[in-house]
Amino acid sequence: MSNDPMDKIADQLGDIQEASESTAQTSGVKDRNLNLILDIPLKVTVELGRTKMPVSELLNLTQGSVIELAKLAGEPMEVLVNDKLIARGEAVVVNEKFGVRLTDIISPSERIEQLK
Prior knowledge:
This protein has helices at about 5-35, 55-60, 110-115, and strands at about 45, 75-80, 85-95, 95-105. It has 3 helices and 4 strands. The protein is elongated and about 90 Å long. The mean pLDDT is about 80. A 4-stranded antiparallel sheet has the order 1-2-3-4.
């Protein structure tokens, strides 16, 4: 075993390079695995509100009927992915189409809690 400081530095640099190459390989695997799922289609739903009504009221609906929702005007809409809440937002108009501006993203811990 050598006591030369330059040999010790060379050994440490070799260890760092090996660790770096190992991390790059692991990162490449992770990127490749992530790329496998990036094209999977998901159902995204924006919920304006909900209500319950008896069948008789449902059958009496006609064109122009108004359904009162259990949500107040201006209250955030819920954004669901595969029926799981992931965010809340507000309605916006973009190029004459409706959209949703996200105002609150559900934290990862809250999303995990929903899965239980």
